[in-house]
Design goal:
- Helices cover 39% and strands 18% of the residues.
- Strands 2, 3, 5, 6, 7, 8, 11, 12, 14, 15, 16 and 17 form a 12-stranded mixed beta sheet that branches. The protein has a 3-stranded mixed beta sheet with strand order 1-9-10, with no helix packed on it.
- β14 and β15 form a beta hairpin.
- It folds into 2 domains: 2-184, no CATH class; 212-422, Alpha carbonic anhydrase (Carbonic Anhydrase II, Roll).
- It contains 14 helices and 17 strands.
- The chain is an alpha+beta fold.
- The structure holds zinc ion (ZN).
- Zinc ion is lined by residues 190, 289, 291, 308, 376.
């Protein structure tokens, strides 16, 4: 329940602050006051263990009017859905050398309202704004937003001013943990969903699935880019191809195994240190995850499964390396992973003394097909570079059936005017 409130605060503080910061500061002021008040209630509730339940109840009672505000934001979101506003704003700001805090916050807000709160570029922009902020008067809101982010499982940087008045042990720990992270929270971005999202939170977390009413053909309602984007993934890969001359060189390292079932896939989170060089430029490996069958098709045919290795560079650009898995011999790397993969949705598990090297899952040859695409899960953010390896890796039939998701592949998307390149 605390998380539910945290998510509402988050939506308001980020969406409200961002959007109203861009348009008019007075409207923003009101939203910020309410957010700050609610944050106070939660803080008070956390301090008093015995009275906690009652205080939280009171905070919950404050939710309906706030929810109405969120809906108002949703209306704005609809108006922004085409992405035209964001494009204009980005073009306008591209000319400026350094954005003011307010502009940066506004940009984050518009990105959020266009692409959704879990979009990597939104989180990036908002983190940047938080780094820049010197609004003494808005500090309370910023702190509330940061703590709400941390409490809802998002990795955020917490300003020292906010961390200092952290009231409880739990909060202090959250702040400390969040500080250790790079603050981008991108580990879950590729799947656009809070990996800790349990049933109780789902009324506030946008929900999606691979079939039925929440299936891919309906993603666009909640996540506009999924419906309207012009360079979406996955693709059916077929010629003609254009030749490129650069190489993709993985430099993955052994690290502690951190694995989770996020309700949509099995994902392995990677500790910093593993990289890939694309045309000489380094991208950090954040996580890898699986789809069954493969999302990408080669000449109209899917493979048994695919692994997506998700990387990000210093500028926040995402690159996905795809390794297709074909039915054949047992795969020893996958054997290790499957023995620790949680069968049901839940938080990340870190089995003691188990190390894993993602290199074990790569083929020897690194020839690739390359195209510009998108995340294949909501919010379907574009400008993601895809490198699908031509060499496939074996997985046994039994290992395919042991994967806890029968089908978690988005259908093939239109190529539009994109070109597929090959090295
Ligand atoms: Zn994927």
């Amino acid at each position: 329940m605390f998380k539910t409130i945290a998510i509402v605060i988050l939506t308001l503080a980020l969406g409200g602050a961002g959007y109203f910061g861009f348009t008019q500061k007075s409207a923003y002021g009101n939203a910020s006051k309410e957010v700050a008040e609610l944050a106070e209630k939660i803080k008070a509730a956390e301090q008093k263990d015995e009275a906690a339940a009652e205080e939280l109840k009171a905070a919950e009672d404050a939710l309906p009017p706030l929810e109405a505000k969120v809906k108002e934001l949703d209306a704005v979101k609809g108006a922004l859905a085409s992405g035209a506003v964001l494009k204009d704003l980005e073009a306008l700001y591209a000319k400026e050398k350094k954005l003011s805090t307010e502009k940066q916050l506004g940009l984050a807000g518009i990105r959020m309202l266009t692409n959704g709160g879990k979009d990597p570029s939104t989180i990036e922009a908002f983190n940047k704004a938080l780094e820049m902020t010197d609004w003494k008067g808005q500090q309370q809101v910023v702190c509330a937003a940061q703590k709400a982010l941390a409490a809802s499982g998002e990795k955020v940087k917490i300003m020292s001013e906010c961390a200092a008045d952290a009231p409880t042990g739990k909060d202090a720990k959250d702040s400390k943990d969040a500080k250790k992270d790079d603050g981008h929270g991108a580990k879950k971005d590729a799947h656009g969903k809070d990996s800790k999202g349990g049933k109780s939170e789902e009324k506030h977390v946008a929900h999606w699935d691979y079939e039925g009413e929440m299936g891919p053909e309906h993603w666009g309602k909640e996540f506009p880019t999924c419906g309207k984007g012009k360079s979406q993934s996955p693709l059916n890969i077929k010629g003609p191809f254009e030749k490129v001359r650069f190489a993709v060189v993985p430099e993955y390292k052994l690290g502690p195994l951190k694995i989770l079932n996020n309700g949509h896939t099995i994902q392995v989170n990677v500790t910093p240190g593993s990289k890939i060089r694309i045309d000489g430029k380094a991208f950090d490996l954040l996580q890898f995850h699986f789809h069954r069958p493969s999302e990408e098709h080669i000449n109209g045919k899917p493979s048994a499964m695919v692994i997506h290795f998700v990387h990000k560079n210093e500028s926040g650009e995402l690159a996905v390396l795809g390794v297709l898995l074909q039915e054949g011999n047992e795969n020893p790397g996958i054997k290790t992973l499957w023995s620790y993969a949680p069968p049901k949705e839940g938080p990340e598990v870190t089995p003691e003394n188990v190390a894993f090297n993602p290199t074990n899952l790569l083929p020897r040859e690194m020839e690739f097909f390359h195209y510009d695409g998108s995340l294949t899960t909501p919010p379907c953010t574009e400008k993601v570079k895809f490198y699908i390896l031509k060499s496939q890796v074996n997985i046994s039939k039994e290992q395919v059936t042991q994967f806890p998701f029968k089908m978690n592949a988005r259908p093939i998307q239109p190529l539009n005017d994109r070109k597929i390149l090959t090295n």
